[in-house]
Amino acid sequence: MMIADAGLNSFLPAKMRVPLDRLRPTQAAVGMRAVALKRRKVEKHVATPRKIERYLDHRPIPSVIGPGGDLFMIDHHHLGLALWQAEVETAFVVVIEDFSVLPVAMFWHRMEQGGWLRPFDEEGRRIAPSKLPKRIKGLRQDRYRDLSWSVREAGGFVKSPQPYSEFLWADFFRTRVSESLIAKNYDVAVAKALKLSRSSQARHLPGFTST
Predict the structure, then answer these.
(1) Of 3, 133, 152, which Cα lies nearest the Cα of 63?
(2) What is the C-alpha to C-alpha distance for residues 5 and 66, in angstroms, rounded to an integer?
(3) DSSP 3-state of 147
(4) Which domains does the chain have, with CATH numbers?
(5) Tell me: the pLDDT tens digits for 44-73?
(6) What share of the chain is helix, strand, coil (3-state, %, to 5)?
(7) Cα distance between residue 3 and residue 161, in whole Å
(8) pTM
(9) DSSP string of 54-107, one letter each residue
(10) What is the CA radius of gyration of the chain?
């Protein structure tokens, strides 16, 4: 995800360590397969304090200060949930904007305008920002987000800096691959989605490649 250059906001705090429970998500769902893979990577480091410290230090979570001083994470939701599942209690955060003085409605408007908010549930339906999970552990599963991740891993499209690009692919597959197929035969669903990702129907999506 593209984020503002923290160097342009010299008045903001530098990288700091905060409890994971303090971070508020800006999306409702994640791909649990991707989370599981990240959790396994995290668990390889947690036994050694030096290793987990270095791992976290290299993966700060970009965040925005919102009304009331709440910290809203704008990326690394999969990593955040993986850390929580691995019983890691804190993470490093880089604050890139301070919108704490904004009224709530204006805050959410600025967040969406900046590409830092995905107000949709795990079924791809638009929701009010107030319906987003209040904590990382409340993130829900979106099977289609997993499907888009698997297709990208298989070379169906390339990673894009456009905010929430893999969710755009997830929404594309949502209307073309049945959820029952994903649940019953994930490999077949991925093969079908991979073929769709290289079709002309997907040409408008970020990271599209016909090769």
Answers:
(1) 3
(2) 18
(3) helix
(4) 6-141 (3.90.1530.10), 143-202 (1.10.8.10)
(5) 999 888 999 999 999 999 999 999 999 999
(6) 45, 15, 40
(7) 9
(8) 0.90
(9) HHHHTS-EEEEE-GGG-EEE-S-HHHHHHHHHTT--EEEEEEEEE-TTS-HHHH
(10) 18
